[in-house]
Amino acid sequence: MSDAASRLAALAEELMGVPLPVRIRAWDGSEAGPPDAPTLIVRHRRALRRMVWKPGELGLARAWVAGEIDVRGDLYEALDRLAGLVWERGHDAKDPVHLVRDPRLRAAARELLRLAGPWPPPAPPAEEVRRRSGPLHTKVRDRRAISHHYDVGNDFYELVLGPSMVYSCAYWSEGGTLEDAQRDKLDLICRKLALKEGDRLLDVGCGWGSMAMHAARHYGVTVVGITLSAEQAAYARKRIADEGLTDRIEIRVQDYRDVRDGPYDAISSIGMAEHVGAVRYREYADDLYALLKPGGRLLNHQIARRPERNEEDYRVDEFIDAYVFPDGELAPVGRTTATLEEAGFEVRDIEAIREHYALTLRQWVANLEAHWDEAVRLTSPGRARIWRLYMAASAISFERNRIGVNQILAVKTPESGASGMPLRSRIWSAGSGR
């Protein structure tokens, strides 16, 4: 089969209706497309079968995870160029029904099938989440979803996250390192919560214990950290013991719905609420409200998506759902704040820091790429490719304002109305807790 790249490029442009934004290198060594653009390498015809079988991002993701496609050149530029086709053009151009109705496109689709080779496509890569059943966001299903993402090896996460072991958006300043930015983020949260000696903090989704350790070490609080990941909990407990903080910090493998030992003076929830889901978000807000003492503060640090013109059109990202965060959901920040207020909270401050997450993700990708062989050894080639793609694509999404991240500070304001907030807001943003 000669010059597969030219045929593939022509078919892609016919089906998508726009010029191909990247160069293509096919399995036969041929190349076609813009000479100065990043190159999409199609190593095997199997990749086409996957993309025809599951048009859009899921087919592409399966081919990527399997190593059947790759990018030569700048990955971020390639994703940025492809974003308009794969993620931002809507679903009509990728809908098989749309192809069947248009005779011209139907002919192109038949030619693409011939080029793809023998049917059917191969099975999805082993890293894909298998078929799920039952209601969303039960305790059992949430525990399995969390385990899929977080229980892939603490050594792997050390390579990606660096010494801070913080898996959420950092808070950057000019010239700072990732460790500086993560420390500053943790300290900013402590100051927004107005933590002081003797306070009791609940850290929901405590990860590897970094927030709990920072709050206990620098602010003299006692902390209960909860996670659904057994591997995270074991790692956090060892860190805490090594730092001599076991008298101040307790780490539990526990669902937030099962915490009953309030009241707490403050609650931090950093990068956890994305796993709660729309059907449970009011329950989440109610539970945290009940666990706080009057006047207590909640810092909810959460990724948000842009609202749809018609919210019924919203679809969960197929690649993220199948390979990265099963059952994860993003909501617009307005819906999140409204739900917190419905639960009784007074929302006092919202700080949008989406550009900070793009910087964080680019640093994580750089860490992964710098330790690629070891990352593959610790997990699998497919898993390492998943993390590289999802983090790079997420960085582009933050940069393009497709998604954002917000720190929402809310107070369980008592009936007297005395919130305990400073008269001038955001005095906490000055300085850094070193």
TrEMBL record:
EC number: 2.1.1.-
Keyword Lipid metabolism in record: yes
Keyword Transport: no
Broad class of enzyme this protein falls into: transferase
Pfam families tied to this protein: CMAS
Residue span, Polyketide synthase-like methyltransferase domain: 156-396
Top-level taxon: Bacteria
GO MF, one annotated term: methyltransferase activity
Source organism per UniProt: Streptomyces coeruleoprunus
Family (UniProt): Belongs to the CFA/CMAS family.
UniProt KW keywords: Lipid metabolism, Methyltransferase, S-adenosyl-L-methionine, Transferase
GO biological process: methylation
Name of the protein: Class I SAM-dependent methyltransferase
